[in-house]
Design brief:
Elements: H1 27-36, H2 40-44, E1 57-64, E2 67-74, H3 97-108, H4 120-128, H5 143-158
Antiparallel strand pairs: 1-2
Helix pairs in contact: 1-4
């Protein structure tokens, strides 16, 4: 499908945009990984390799049950009956880090089906090992609660904390 040599981080280096969800309902995980990519050093902590391995071997580290777990994968990605990527494909930047990370995370959780539906804060915790907070924005017409939420989000943004929407529901 692609004729050029694989590029792990992409032509422009690590960028958070250009990731497109495939047939797996894991927008919550993809959003968390994209949020992490806003500060490339954060993302590089998850990846053992810093380039595309000529042997197609990769290792990713995930925080689960209060410790880091290394997951080894190869670069063989699943495709559908038409030969197109089943899950996330390379980014518009030509980067392969996201589909490879997604495969490693699916392997950690046994398979792609088990990563369908989740919450963005779960993805951030798994990728950073740091405490996360879920902020409920469903306040109806309560202007005070909305203003308090905005104040909190602004403070977190000024500290450059990674943030994502709650994201997925049942089935993606």
């Amino acid at each position: 499908m692609y004729n050029d040599a694989p590029n792990f981080w992409g032509a422009k280096g690590i960028v958070p945009n250009g990731v497109a969800q495939g047939s797996v309902g894991d927008c919550w995980f993809l959003a968390a990984a994209s949020a992490l990519a806003e500060v490339p050093e954060r993302l590089k902590r998850v990846v053992w390799n810093d380039s595309y391995d000529k042997n197609g071997a990769f290792r990713f580290n995930f925080w689960v049950k209060n410790k880091w777990h290394a997951v080894n994968i190869d670069d063989r990605l699943p495709v559908n009956a038409y030969g197109r990527p089943y899950a996330t494909s390379r980014s518009t930047n030509g980067a392969w880090w996201m589909p490879l990370m997604e495969k490693a995370y699916a392997k950690l959780d046994q398979n792609y089906e088990r990563i369908i539906a989740g919450m963005g804060f779960e993805g951030l915790r798994t990728l950073t090992g740091m405490p996360t907070v879920y902020l409920n924005h469903n306040y109806g017409r309560n202007a005070t609660a909305v203003a308090e939420s905005f104040t909190l989000l602004k403070a977190l943004s000024e500290k450059n904390f990674p943030m994502t929407s709650p994201c997925c529901h049942n089935g993606g």
